[in-house]
């Protein structure tokens, strides 16, 4: 359960990054301290910054810079990779096409998913069969993003190893049938600057992305350094800004981790409001479970919570479609109960 946190903690995870594959990892006092801080951050806020993550700051910035260049292109160029059900829900969305709780979001984006082959997960995975729709302009966009994806996947695995230790489990507790073959999602997002005004002449606060939780295990957010837009809601309902810290990622946990921990860790509501007159970009990498993983509270987490199962079992792939296609995006996890009938409805939208 989240608390009335007033700021988002910053954790130097370099000891964990260096030692997480060591079988005696918890004997290292520096790693043990990182694990303690991860546990506290996941309990108190569900959000934290990481530094010492090993991904070059130059690459992090280059990813944002090339994203700005793409969104600066005319619409007719961006629409060459337009998202549709025929593209496996991959590709470009115009401003206002993404919906949260029935309200259009004021952002544009490229949606990318781990590529699936037909029949890999039966009928469940078939709507996402296909290849990612990378733009040819700017040059090297595909090469840069694919390099970045490899590094984000590896970093996320290492952070999840730390979280497994924080819960008192083995370092690989989230691997195997849970996330030994992880799915991933990449959203390359652009938020137009504020240009409209209210009747009193003040800048209008358009919602770049409405309040929601993420649906996987862990999210890595790479945001512009000079614009404050991401906000996280604490227990009292206050919105706390995730002020950019250069060279860091903002991390948050998602619905699948909430289920696995039986609510010990919270998937916290967050939203984006770009109050700046300048265009803002954010590249969000979502580290997920296995696509067909059946997610239920872990025994070690049931023991921590009195032995009673507080959250329903979910199949990740069903939850992904149910939330991402709009029928319960923005609702609390316990309000969202995926079933095959609703899943079919979502896929027909």
TrEMBL record:
The keyword Metal-binding applies. Belongs to the iron/ascorbate-dependent oxidoreductase family. GO terms for cellular component: cytosol. This is Fe2OG dioxygenase domain-containing protein. It comes from Mikania micrantha (bitter vine). GO terms for molecular function: 2-oxoglutarate-dependent dioxygenase activity; metal ion binding. Keywords: Cytoplasm, Dioxygenase, Iron, Metal-binding, Oxidoreductase. It is found in: Cytoplasm, Cytosol. The keyword Manganese does not apply. SUPFAM superfamilies: Clavaminate synthase-like (SSF51197). Residues 181-289 form the Fe2OG dioxygenase domain. It comes from the Eukaryota.
